[in-house]
């Protein structure tokens, strides 16, 4: 027998974006249904941020044992118990899982339905034997790994982010297709945990980042022993039984064949939109995302979209930000405008690479005149005390000090970008950053120093000097 529900809001997908919408709406007493076909918590908790950052933490610890010498601690080669590392990764997931569980959400007042959702018409979603006719729907269905059409790949035993964290034994030689965020984070982590790692990138590794800063990360990862082939096409893949895979490569340098034990596909993401009946719901979409307006409404004004499904910025904090905008729009009818320049991104390699706003290349295209200020970690006292002097901050600003973009490569870059995210979201200027007081000695001082460096040339201007000279006379 079919049951029909008529909530105010029906959210499809219980990942970062969907959970945020459901929790916020329920907190305001709104009737919410949440439909999830897989694991509660979505990609971030189960196959993304959480397992990758737990693995990276183990790998960082292993590397610290090899790298203690400059601090007076003898270097040792760590003994890596891969099964225990696997346990640590899954314990991290298990520790966070209760926050995202159906029990918790039911207790918050959200009606959780564990089934796949599919639109039947403009206002009805079917999930198992339940029909949902909501006033508003929110598509929060996330994304899946993009599997490139490489001959032989479909016949090989490849891993993706959905399966790699299940390995209980160390891969002997891991070959990674794609040198983006997933590829480079995991390449460094597996190398540090004792695997041989080769990355094959068809274009440029970390190609979305400022090349000046990306080069610093790539050099470090290469120095640690990861082999990275850039501008290289994979022409064929052949699986030779279990644990042996062969890739034929073609690049400007010619052709070669490489062999590994495991293959990871990390070649980008495709939004989960297929099979959802979006045409029946009047939602205009393509393979790479949905058409949404600035308040994240699709072409059906009763259906919103958040997170990876939009094909916009694919980060957990972006999904949470989208959720806030949608709740504001649906519950309070307040104007909401998605602003991409206030969403930071961080690649959690070592050194970390963090960015917000425009890169130098993007700013040069968009503005007539820009100025760039840099400050190196090597000039920071805390970095010196810890031998973490590798890297710098780069601030892109307008001639009047409007902040257009910031990139940081170095220790704790992901933490340091926070203050810039606040500055951009509140339209603060470099003058504001130059005048705040960071505690000493902290890595955070590099941000203020970069802002001060931006104004330093002004102190040398004859007009400014003449003014200072004039004011001295009034003492
Ligand atoms: C390896 C890796 C590392 C990452 N690291 C980071 C990081 O460090 N920081 C960061 O910010 N981001 C990171 N990300 C990205 C982050 O995981 C995603 O941006 C985030 O999970 C997107 O949230 P979402 O709610 O849009 O989708 P998801 O979290 O994927 O949730 C979507 C949910 O919808 C469900 N669903 C799909 N279709 C249907 C349907 N028809 N019916 C019912 N349910 C459905 C799915 O089962 C899923 O649970 C990482 C991603 C990966 C793969
Ligand atoms: N720290 C983080 O916040 C974090 C970490 C991991 C993932 N993510 C999110 O997940 C998304 C997906 O990550 P990703 O690394 O899969 O995607 P990506 O888009 O960052 O990188 C994919 C790379 O694969 C390359 N590629 C595509 N086809 C290829 C082929 N046939 N052969 C070789 N290389 C090929 C692309 O040129 C690109 O460099 C990221 O863009 C990001 O939004 C975020």
TrEMBL record:
Disulphide linkage map: 44-49
Binding locations of NAD(+): 178-185, 201, 268
GO molecular function (one): NAD(P)H dehydrogenase (quinone) activity
Cofactor-binding details, from the entry: Binds 1 FAD per subunit.
Domain (Pyridine nucleotide-disulphide oxidoreductase dimerisation) ranges: 343-450
Keywords (A to Z) from UniProt: Disulfide bond, FAD, Flavoprotein, NAD, NADP, Nucleotide-binding, Oxidoreductase, Redox-active center
Coiled coil start-end: none
Cofactors (names): FAD
Top-rank taxon: Bacteria
Residues bound to FAD: 53, 117, 141-143, 308
Similarity field: Belongs to the class-I pyridine nucleotide-disulfide oxidoreductase family.
Name this polypeptide is given: Dihydrolipoamide dehydrogenase
């Amino acid at each position: 027998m079919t049951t029909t529900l008529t909530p105010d809001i029906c959210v499809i997908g219980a990942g970062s974006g969907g959970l945020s919408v459901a929790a916020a709406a329920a907190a305001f007493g709104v009737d919410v249904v949440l439909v999830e076909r897989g694991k509660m918590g979505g990609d971030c908790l189960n196959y993304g941020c959480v397992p990758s950052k737990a693995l990276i933490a183990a790998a960082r610890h292993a590397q610290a044992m090899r790298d203690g010498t400059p601090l007076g601690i003898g270097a040792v080669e760590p003994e890596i118990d891969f099964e225990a590392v696997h346990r640590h990764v899954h314990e991290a997931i298990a520790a966070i899982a209760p926050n995202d569980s159906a029990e918790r959400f039911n207790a918050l007042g959200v009606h959780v339905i564990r089934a796949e959702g599919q639109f039947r018409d403009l206002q009805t979603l079917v999930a198992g034997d339940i029909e949902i006719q909501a006033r508003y729907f929110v598509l929060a269905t996330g994304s899946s790994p993009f599997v490139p059409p490489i001959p032989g790949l479909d016949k090989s035993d490849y891993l993706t982010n959905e399966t790699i964290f299940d390995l209980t034994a160390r891969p002997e030689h891991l070959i990674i297709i794609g040198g983006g965020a997933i590829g480079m984070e995991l390449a460094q982590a597996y190398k540090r945990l004792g695997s041989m790692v080769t990355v094959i990138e068809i274009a440029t590794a970390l190609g979305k980042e400022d090349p000046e800063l990306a080069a610093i990360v790539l050099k470090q990862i290469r120095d640690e022993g990861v082999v990275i082939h850039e501008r290289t096409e994979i022409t064929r893949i052949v699986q030779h039984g279990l644990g042996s895979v062969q890739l034929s490569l073609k690049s400007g340098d010619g052709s070669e064949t490489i062999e590994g034990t495991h293959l990871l596909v990390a070649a980008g993401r495709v939004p989960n939109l297929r099979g959802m009946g979006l045409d029946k719901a009047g939602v205009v979409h393509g393979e790479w995302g949905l058409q949404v307006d600035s308040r994240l409404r699709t072409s059906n004004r009763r259906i919103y979209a958040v997170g990876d499904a939009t094909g916009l910025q694919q980060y957990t904090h972006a999904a949470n930000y989208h959720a806030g905008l949608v709740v504001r729009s649906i519950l309070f009818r307040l104007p909401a405008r998605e602003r991409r320049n206030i969403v930071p991104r961080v690649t959690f390699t070592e050194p970390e690479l963090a960015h917000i706003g425009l890169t130098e290349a993007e700013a040069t295209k968009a503005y007539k005149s820009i100025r760039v200020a840099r400050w190196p970690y090597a000039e920071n006292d805390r970095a010196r005390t810890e031998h973490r002097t590798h890297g710098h901050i780069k601030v892109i600003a307008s001639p009047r000090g409007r902040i257009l973009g910031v990139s940081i490569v170095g220790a704790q870059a992901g933490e340091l970008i926070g203050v810039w995210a606040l500055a951009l979201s509140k339209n603060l200027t470099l003058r504001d950053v130059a005048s705040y007081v960071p505690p000493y000695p902290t890595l955070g001082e590099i941000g203020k120093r970069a802002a001060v460096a931006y104004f330093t040339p002004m102190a040398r201007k004859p007009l400014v000097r003449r003014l200072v000279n004039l004011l001295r006379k009034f003492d």
